[in-house]
């Protein structure tokens, strides 16, 4: 069914207070593949003694699908299209945040095709903005509502050159089961019947988890293990990854950081595309 553009663009989504503990921060780091075997910089992501936050944890705080029913959106028709996080300050290892969410735009892919909801979220901590998230949600069959409105998703063009760096990152078969404990309980990621209903032969990994793996890889490889150096991370979700498949990341250096894409290492099928990371010296 086509999205109701007027209803969505005037939807009032209440702001939320979200409290989190160091346990939540550590759970997120473990769910995206961090572990003490990564050395001192990785240890700081999973051990409370000198805990640092994987920056994409902000997306876990921002996640909220409670407005779907009031917006006329069916959860089973939604897959994550892309994510763009801008980091103003590092998140504290534990604390309270204020989350504000609005619908910034809609993309009409045509009658009988998909529609995209552009969701903008701001995260504040101790009265200071720490992160802005732009999340594009692809709604199957949601097109045909009369044309795109509001903010449109940006795109990143990758170089037509061999990558400067290639990195293989494994995933585990239990990774989706672990990641869903962070809040995204969409059955697509654990229930084989729900996955088949969505057109997959088995449950797929959350796009946000794949994004988090990309964030961790960037922090390890290009930030010297220091999450505070990452100022922006964006990527488009180009295809599914099944838990247990390895990711092959291709990186290109540019003046402000790196551009990247990721593919399933065994098949070469695109998983993340148009990736961009902005890094301070």
Low-confidence stretches: none
Mean of all residue-level pLDDT scores? 94
Would you report the number of β strands?
11
Instruction: Give the SSE string.
Output: HEHHHEEEEEEHHHEEEE
Percentage of residues in helical conformation: 10-25%
Amount of beta strand: 25-35%
Radius of gyration: 18 Å
Helices, by number, come to 7
Distance between the termini: 48 Å
What is the approximate shape? globular
Sheet having the most strands: 11 strands, antiparallel
Provide the structure class. Answer: alpha+beta
List the helices and strands and how they pair.
Layout: H1 5-9, E1 16-20, H2 22-31, H3 40-46, H4 57-62, E2 78-87, E3 95-108, E4 115-125, E5 128-139, E6 149-150, E7 165-169, H5 175-179, H6 192-197, H7 207-222, E8 230-237, E9 247-254, E10 257-264, E11 270-279
Antiparallel strand pairs: 1-3, 2-5, 2-8, 3-4, 3-6, 4-5, 7-9, 8-11, 9-10, 10-11
Question: Which tags fit this structure?
Answer:
281 residues; alpha+beta; 11-stranded antiparallel beta sheet
Q: How would you describe the overall organization of this protein?
A:
There is one protein chain. By secondary structure, the chain is α+β, with helices and mostly antiparallel strands. Helices cover 20% and strands 33% of the residues. It is built from seven helices and eleven strands. The protein has helices at 5-9, 22-31, 40-46, 57-62, 175-179, 192-197, 207-222; strands spanning 16-20, 78-87, 95-108, 115-125, 128-139, 149-150, 165-169, 230-237, 247-254, 257-264, 270-279. Strands 1, 2, 3, 4, 5, 6, 7, 8, 9, 10 and 11 form an eleven-stranded antiparallel sheet that branches. The radius of gyration is 18 Å and the shape is globular.
């Amino acid at each position: 069914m086509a999205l109701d553009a007027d209803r969505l663009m005037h939807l009032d989504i209440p702001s939320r207070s979200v409290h989190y503990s160091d346990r939540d921060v550590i759970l997120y780091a473990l769910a995206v593949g961090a572990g003490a075997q990564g050395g001192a910089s990785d240890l700081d992501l999973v051990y409370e003694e000198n805990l640092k936050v994987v920056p994409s944890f902000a997306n876990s705080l921002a996640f909220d699908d409670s407005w779907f029913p009031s917006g006329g959106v069916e959860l089973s028709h939604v897959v994550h299209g892309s994510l763009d996080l801008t980091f103003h300050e590092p998140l504290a290892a534990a604390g309270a945040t204020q989350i504000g969410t609005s619908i910034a735009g809609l993309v009409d892919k045509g009658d009988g095709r998909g529609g995209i909801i552009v969701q903008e979220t701001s995260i504040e901590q101790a009265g200071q903005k720490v992160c802005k998230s732009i999340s594009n949600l692809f709604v199957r069959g949601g097109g045909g509502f009369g044309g795109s409105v509001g903010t449109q998703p940006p795109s990143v063009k990758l170089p037509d050159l061999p990558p400067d760096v290639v990195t293989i990152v494994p995933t585990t078969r239990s990774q989706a089961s672990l990641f869903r404990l962070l809040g995204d309980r969409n059955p697509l990621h654990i229930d084989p019947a729900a996955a088949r209903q969505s057109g997959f032969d088995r449950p797929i990994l959350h796009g946000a988890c794949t994004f988090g793996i990309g964030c961790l890889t960037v922090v390890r490889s290009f930030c010297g293990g220091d999450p505070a150096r990452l100022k922006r991370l964006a990527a488009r979700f180009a295809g599914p990854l099944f838990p247990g498949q390895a990711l092959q990341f291709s990186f290109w250096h540019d003046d402000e950081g790196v551009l990247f894409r990721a593919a399933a290492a065994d098949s070469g099928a695109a998983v993340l595309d148009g990736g961009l990371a902005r890094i301070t010296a």
